[in-house]
């Protein structure tokens, strides 16, 4: 199935690039508008991201009478199912363009948020109609709801928004990724406060309903008007009128030939990057999802737990900006091992007894890892495999990332149930990261050959 889809990637954009206006008429390079629009698109995906869901975890446990492990299991099933179809979403994006794919995901995310806002009453209705116990109906509804917001939010909308920006830049790609990273990192770090404020002003279910209608009434028109798939789709050249940075083509411009998904799968480097990104998604999602429980096991309050996100986000923003800028100058394998050592640092902090030193280690490790992950996830695929099939390749990568984010919260909750604490999650993080880093050395440091020769 994937082989057939990978071949059929001829473009069939339903909305021409000059509708409702031509980007060529903009007095400066339209890529800068695309950069802002893509960053906003990623921020609009927050209701489907981990930090957007974690704010609602305790409310769901209380109002739907589900345990923490059951919520984590529903989250895992829904997210894993999302991961299984993410590659097809990337191929759809390649074929029909950014506007169609992003618009569809926006409607889907909005609809799923509205559905989840009625989860309390809907679970009772489903129970009466199906004859299932109320407990089982609530669990099934959460699986469907998590599938929807994770696929349309964390998956498709994020994939398309990031991929669209990468298609508009080549020699300035690292700089564009750095700017986008600053914007989105600040938004993500502040999002839990905004969502908690909405819950305090209304209620947990009404806040979901408000966001759902906002996605359809406001975000959808914005995407249809502003989003554009690529310069070529608008009759323009990439980075038209921009001054080319000297010495940048060899590092950020990408290969001369764009590789298909089938060709990219033959490259060992693809699997090295995917393995590390998968594990960081697993580990970071679990850490974020269970942050209050982790700090509670250390004798800390919920306020102390949430407060750690601010210094982590500051370090993450700095690391992402510096890493994106340096990607125009150095090879991505150095970013790869920066991520390896950063995950190890954060994992060691979870393993050791909590004190001032380990708190600094945790903040610095998780912040550096988060920033470096953003660099690799945005820049690796266009740099190694080109722009033409970026949707299919990044869609497959996103499926691994989404799968990791699905397994992580469930695995942490299981380990906490077995041992009564989270210290062994730190030991697991150190061990797995060391293995991934060692096994990747031969593939990443050998002289790269043409993918057609592999």
Question: Can you describe this structure?
Answer:
The protein has 454 residues and is mostly helical. It has one domain (26-233, 259-440): MFS general substrate transporter like domains (Growth Hormone, Chain: A, Up-down Bundle), CATH 1.20.1250. Helices cover 76% and strands 0% of the residues. The longest helix is centred in the first third of the chain and has 35 residues, at 134-168. 52% of the residues are buried. Mean pLDDT is 87; it is low at 1-9 and 246-252.
What topology emerges from the helices and strands here?
Layout: H1 2-7, H2 31-44, H3 50-54, H4 57-64, H5 68-84, H6 86-96, H7 98-117, H8 119-130, H9 134-168, H10 173-201, H11 204-226, H12 249-252, H13 261-264, H14 268-289, H15 291-297, H16 302-307, H17 309-326, H18 332-351, H19 356-385, H20 390-419, H21 423-445
Helix pairs in contact: 2-9, 2-10, 2-11, 5-9, 5-20, 6-7, 6-9, 6-20, 7-9, 7-11, 8-9, 9-20, 10-11, 10-17, 10-19, 14-19, 14-20, 14-21, 17-19, 18-19, 18-21, 19-20
Q: Please identify which CATH superfamily we are dealing with.
A: MFS general substrate transporter like domains
The largest β sheet comes out as: none
Distance between the termini: 23 Å
The helix/strand series, from N terminus to C terminus, equals HHHHHHHHHHHHHHHHHHHHH
- Total domain units: 1
Number of helices: 21
**Name of the level-1 CATH class:** Mainly Alpha
CA-based gyration radius: 21 Å
């Amino acid at each position: 199935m994937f082989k057939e889809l990978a071949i059929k990637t001829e473009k069939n954009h339903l909305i021409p690039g000059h509708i409702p206006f031509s980007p060529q008429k903009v007095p400066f390079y339209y890529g800068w508008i695309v950069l802002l629009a893509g960053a906003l698109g990623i921020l609009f995906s927050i209701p489907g991201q981990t930090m957007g869901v974690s704010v609602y975890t305790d409310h769901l446990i209380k109002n739907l009478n589900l345990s923490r492990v059951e919520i984590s299991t529903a989250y895992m099933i829904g997210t894993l199912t999302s991961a299984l179809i993410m590659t097809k979403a990337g191929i759809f994006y390649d074929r029909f363009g950014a506007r169609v794919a992003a618009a569809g995901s926006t409607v889907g995310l909005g609809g799923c948020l509205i559905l989840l806002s009625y989860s309390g009453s809907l679970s009772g209705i489903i129970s009466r109609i199906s004859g299932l116990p109320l407990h089982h109906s609530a669990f099934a509804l959460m699986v469907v709801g998590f599938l929807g917001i994770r696929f349309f939010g964390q998956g498709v909308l994020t994939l398309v928004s990031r991929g669209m920006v990468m298609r508009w830049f080549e020699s300035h790609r690292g700089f564009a990724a750095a700017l986008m990273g600053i914007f989105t990192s600040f938004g993500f770090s502040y999002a839990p406060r905004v969502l908690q404020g909405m819950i305090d002003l209304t209620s947990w279910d009404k806040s979901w309903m408000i966001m759902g209608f906002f996605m359809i009434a406001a975000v959808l028109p914005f995407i249809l008007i502003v989003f554009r798939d690529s310069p070529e789709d608008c009759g323009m050249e990439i980075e038209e009128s921009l001054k080319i940075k000297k010495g940048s083509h060899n590092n950020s411009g990408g290969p001369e030939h764009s590789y298909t998904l089938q060709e990219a799968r033959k490259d060992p480097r693809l699997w090295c990057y995917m393995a590390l990104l998968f594990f960081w998604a697993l580990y970071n999602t679990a850490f974020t999802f269970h942050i209050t429980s982790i700090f509670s096991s250390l004798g800390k309050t919920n306020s102390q737990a949430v407060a750690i996100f601010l210094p982590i986000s500051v370090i993450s923003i700095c690391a992402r900006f510096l890493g994106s800028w340096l990607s125009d100058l150095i090879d991505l394998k150095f970013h790869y091992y920066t991520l390896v050592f950063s995950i190890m640092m954060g994992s060691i902090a979870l393993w050791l007894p909590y004190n001032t030193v380990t708190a600094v280690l945790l903040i610095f490790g998780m912040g550096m890892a988060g920033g470096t992950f953003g660099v690799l996830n945005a820049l690796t695929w266009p740099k190694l495999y080109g722009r033409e099939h970026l949707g299919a390749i990044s869609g497959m990568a996103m499926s691994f990332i989404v799968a990791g984010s699905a397994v992580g919260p469930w695995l942490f909750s299981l380990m906490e149930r077995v041992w009564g604490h989270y210290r062994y999650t730190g030991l697991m993080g150190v061990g797995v990261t060391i293995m991934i880093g060692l096994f990747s050395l031969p593939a990443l440091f050998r002289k790269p050959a043409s993918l057609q020769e592999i």
